[in-house]
Amino acid sequence: MSQHVQSRRLRAVDLAKRKAEGRKIIALTAYHAHTAGILDPYCDFILVGDSLGMVMHGMESTLPVTLEMMIVQAQAVMRGTARALVVVDMPFGSYEASREQAFLSAARVLKETGAGAIKLEGGARFADTVAFLTERGVPVMGHIGLTPQSVNTMGGFKVQGHGAGDEARLIADARAISDAGAFAIVLEGIVEPVARAIATDPAVSAATIGIGATSACDGQILVLEDMLGLSERAPKFVKGYGSLREHIEGAVRMYAEEVREGRFPADEHTYAPR
Ligand code: KIV
Questions:
Q1: What's the whole-model pTM score?
Q2: Which of 135, 188, 192, 268 is catalytic?
Q3: Are 37 and 112 in contact (CB under 8 A)?
Q4: Residue 107 lies in a domain
Q5: Per UniProt, where does 3-methyl-2-oxobutanoate bind (predicted)?
Q6: Number of domains forming the structure of the chain
Q7: Ligand 1 geometric centre to CA of 59 (Å)
Q8: Does residue 11 contact residue 51 with C-beta atoms inside 8 Å?
C-alpha cells in the first residue's frame, strides 16, 4: 500500500487562493539556509533570486549566474525552510532558446532542489514557454517591467511604463503571461499608474507581486539584503527595515579591538583540563 507524505509547505495554488481572498502575499528573497529559516514563518514564498549574483558574488549584473549556482542556493533555502513556497529564478541562458530548453532547465531545478515553482523574466514573447511549462507540471511565476537580465537591451536598470506605447506593451505582457497559466507575476520597476492598471486588471488572473511597483499589487517582495540595510546601495523603492551593515561593522570593530588588546578570548571562552 502506498502512502502520501503530506507536506505543510505552501504551493503555487495557495498564492492564487490568497489573491482570491484578498489577503496580501508576503515575499522576500533568500539564498542561505539560515536567513531563509528566519523568514519562513513570515513569508508566503521565498524567492531564490538570480540577484544572488550581484548581492552574494559582487557581479555587475545577473547575467553570469548559472543554473548550477541557482540549484546550490535553492537546496540551501529548502533545507532551511519548512513552510514557505520556494520559487527559484531561471538564470539568463537557461530558458530563452526554446520551450524544450526551458522545460529541461526547470525540471532540473524542481528535481534537484524540491522547490515548488520557477520564475522567468519576459512578457508576451515567453507566453508560449509559460504554457509549455505549466502544461507539463511546472508552476511558473512571470516577471515583467524592469527585467534585470535584459539590462543590455534596456540600456540600464530603467524604470518602465513611461508613455502610452510602453503602458500598452506592459499590460499586454501581463495578460499574455497570465493567460498562458502563470500563477503569479512580479511587476518590477513600473511607474505607479501603469503598475496599478495591471494589478487591478480583471483580465490578469495571476497574482501580482510588486517590487518598485504599486501597493495595489496582491503582494510585495524585496531583496532581503536591501531591506536589512546590508547592501552598499539600494534602489529608491527599498524601505530600510534594518541597519545590518552598521551592526556588522560595529561587531567586527569590537572583535578586532578585543583580539588586539588580548581581551578575547576571556576565561569563559577557554577549556579547562578535566
Ligand atoms: O532576482 C531577484 O531577486 C528578483 C527579485 C528582485 C524579484 O528577481
A1: 0.96
A2: 188
A3: no
A4: yes
A5: 50-51, 89, 119
A6: 1
A7: 14
A8: no
